Every structure is written in structure tokens, then in C-alpha cells.
Amino acid sequence: MEDLQPKAEQVSAGQTRSGQWRLLRSHWQVIAAATAGWALDSFDFAMLLFLLPHLGRVFDVGLPAMTLIVTATGLAKIVGTIGWGLAADRFGRKLVFIAAVLCFSCAAGLSGLAWSYASFMALRILFGIGFGGEWTVSVSLLMETVPESIRPYASGIMVSGYEIGYMLAAATFHLLFPVFGWRWMFMIGVLPALLTIFIRKNIAESPDWIRDQQRHSRRSAFEAFEFNPAALQAWIFSGTINFMLWSVQVLYPTFLISVQHIDASRIYPFLAAYSVGSLTGKPLCGYVAARLGERRTIVLFLCMVIPLTVLYTLVSNVWLLAAGACLMGLFASGLFGILPLYQALRFSVKGRATGIGISYAMTAASSIAPYAIALLSPSIGLRSAIALFVAGSALLLIAIAAWNTTRWMPGGPRSAVDAQESERSPGTHART
């Protein structure tokens, strides 16, 4: 009899995994739409990062001026995320998702027609407004559509789209930029508009939003939103994790070219290594979160990030650099896989899009990271400035994750992940 129990547990675990896989497949349309939206969004933004040194020469401005464009794009998200979030809580997730994709894709294409630094700045601000809306609405739609048991996995898969877009941008820059020039690199960004056709035909409105509207049809978005410590934690965590990731990746191509003295045509392998690590890390983060809980997953990943800053920035051997890029993608960028779930758990459905919109607006603070690094680098060097910002952000995130706000979460004292674990182990308390 003692030998039968482990076998029974293995069968039960196998059935659970099989059922989760079936659920993921049955909801592939909404997962694919959210992932594709994030990928196409990422493609255009990453292309800007690759072109920073070249555009600085085109517009005859220095690195601080070019990083100011990146910062302005981030600050534009304040308008976009909150505005689109309010609209999504009022008019529905699907319609606003389509509008946000159209906004950022049109702005991306028009960026290729810029005739001056000022015109380019204006178009990137417009892109930032749409950029924030895509994230805000797709997270709400996805987390409200897929069943609770697969939300950690869907969360990790969705944000993996960023790496798909990043790798496509890197490959496009490597293959097409020398032939067609910088303008066509942005004009390609109009292609995401085609995604709206898929959304319109294949994606249904959020069932949670529909039910909430039927109960409270006359309530405004501002009246629906609930502020509590859990919401505050979501906002601070979102801003800090983005600050860390902007420190990791925005100036990385510039670091490879100007500090490591690698020719621009040969930086692709390092960018690909980072992207492969990140593409693996985000679904892995969702997998780990479904088993260990969000807090333990966050601490585990960040404890790997801190020592990895040495391999990522402070070595010169190309093989160690490549390893550092891959591992930093796996753990630092991979941790982002928990963010859609982390945000969604801290807001009730009636004001979720608004809450997530404000969360993403808080990431506007992260846009100052590359600018601050650029200002600090003349004193301590670019490699040390990046390492300092990445490791410092990781330590701060650990402190934020240690703050227990679960008793203030909408729907009860425990998160949805904890509830899933309780269902798997009746009569026990889940780990957070």
C-alpha cells in the first residue's frame, strides 16, 4: 500500500498537467492575441533602441538627447495607460484593445516620416500613448477570460511576446537596416494594425466584464475603482520591476558598441542570447509561480539577478558576456512573466483595467533609468552604472515582495494562486 500512494499522486499530477494543457489550447485565440499585441508593440520599441546611435547622428544630437526620447515615450504611457484603462472599464476590453493597437501601429509607421528631432519626439509620444493601452487592456482581457487554474501559465506566455518582438526587431535591424535605412525600420511597424482583424473575428468580450456591467450598468470607472494597500503594492512593484528592466536592456546595444567595442553588425548574437533567455524565463516564471506562489518566485529570481550583473556588464570575454546576457534574460526579464498575474490579482474586476492602467502608468518612473545611467556614466563608466542600477533595483524589489498585502486583496485574504494551491491540497494553507 505504501508504494501505491506515490503512483496515485503521479497520476493525479499527470491528469492536472494534461487538463491545464487542454485549457491552454482551448483558449489559444485570446492568448495568441495578447501575446502578438505585446510582440508587435515590442518590435517597434526595440527598433528604436537599436537605432539610438544612428539617429543621434541623423538628428545631430548626443546620447542624452536620444535617451530623452525613450524617456518621453515612457512618460506618454501615463496618459495612455490610465485613459485606455478607464475606457476599457467603461466600454469593454475588446473594443479598446483594437483601438490601442491601431493607435500605436499608426504612430510607429509615421515615425519613419519624421523630418526633425522635434517631429520624431512628437510621434514617439503618440506611440507611447498607444503602447500603454495595449498592455493595460490585453492583461485585463486575458486574465478575465482564461480559467483561474491556467492564469499563471497564460501570464508567462503573454509577456514572452516581448522577446519574440525583440528578436524580430534585432533580426530585421541586422538584415534590412543596411539595405533600406532607418525610415523603413519604423514603417514596418504599421503591420500590427492587421492584428485588429484577428481580434475582431476571433476574440470574445471578457465574460467577467459583461457580468459586472449587467450588475452595475450605470457605474463610472472612477466609482468602480478601489484603492487599498494591495493596489499600492501593485503600483510600486510595477514601477520598480520596469525600472530594473529598463536599466538592463535600453542601453545594452549602446554598451556593446561603445564599451565592449563590438561592431554594430555583430551585436545580434548577444541580443539573441538575451532574448532566448528571456523567452524561456517568462513561461518558466509562470510555471514556478503556479507551484511555489508569487512571493517565493519573485525572491528566487531576484536572488539570481544580483550576482549575474557581474557576467552581464563587468566582464570582457565574449563567451562570458553571451552567457551573462542569456542568464540575465532568463531571470531578470523572465521575472516579468509574473507581472500580468501579479497586477490582476490586486484589483477587482469592476475597476481592474483602471487599476492595471495606473500600475503601468507608474512604470513611467522607469523611463528615467536610461537617462540617469547616461548622466552617471561619465563619472563611473557605463558598465558600472548599468550594474549599479540593476542590482539596486533587484534589492528593492525583494523588499517590496516581502510586504504582505494579501489580506487586502479583492475577493478575500489570499491570492488566486493561493486559492489554486488550496484546491489541490484541501484543508491546508497555501504558501505565498
Count of alpha/pi helices: 20
Order of helices and strands: HHHHHHHHHHHHHHHHHHHH
CATH fold-type name: Growth Hormone, Chain: A
Q: How many strands?
A: 0
Shape: globular
Quickly give the CATH architecture: Up-down Bundle
Question: What class, by secondary structure content?
Answer: mainly alpha
- Which sheet architecture does the biggest sheet show? none
Kindly give the count of domains.
1
Beta-strand percent range:
under 5%
Low-confidence stretches: 1-15, 412-432
Range of helix content: over 70%
Specify the CATH homologous superfamily.
MFS general substrate transporter like domains
Assigned CATH class: Mainly Alpha
Polypeptide structure, described:
By secondary structure, the chain is mostly helical. It has a single domain (28-190, 227-424), classed as Growth Hormone, Chain: A (Up-down Bundle). The protein contains 20 helices and no strands. It has helices spanning 4-26, 28-58, 63-91, 93-111, 117-145, 151-180, 182-187, 195-202, 207-215, 221-224, 229-249, 252-258, 268-292, 294-313, 318-333, 339-344, 352-362, 368-380, 382-401, 416-424. Helix 2 packs antiparallel against helix 8, helix 6 (151-180) runs antiparallel to helix 13 (268-292) and helix 13 packs antiparallel against helix 14. It is globular and about 60 Å long. The two termini are 33 Å apart.
